[in-house]
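Appendix B. One record, verbatim.
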Amino acid sequence: MLTKVIWGGVKTHRREEYYASSQCSGSEFFRHLGEVTDTDIFVYCPCTSPFVKPQTISQCINQFLSSSGYDSLATVSSIKEFLWLDGKPVNYAPTHAPNSQDLPDVVALNFGVTVVWKEDLIRNCNIIGTKPQFVMTDDIEAIDIDTPLDFYIAEQLYKKLVLEGKGLLE
């Protein structure tokens, strides 16, 4: 394990090879992260969410610390899609298909920012607790790079919004 302070008390941690591999499950990874991190509150902001604003991170931390009744806080995106699982619709009846804007309000974790107590992270083996609070992000902040296409889209947005100075990320 390699841990070093880079600035302002922020520490980096280089994962051991197993915890960076596809053999390691998400639950194993999160539990390990909690076990090797010296903190009471864990804030998870992966580099695969490059458009999350510093203000959003601060807002999430402050909201988590000032709220009671929740054991975690996570950024989410609204999903208005016709969803199916195992050959069956999840959020609508095909014989009474609504307009997409009238589908139920379903949210998806986008992993831009997650805040959780370290003890809950270890106990639940997850950065999302059993009583999460959600913060909705806009479409750009919600971008999560998981595939080459996601990376291409993020790269094009970066060129347009940052390099061309469109100011949408401020």
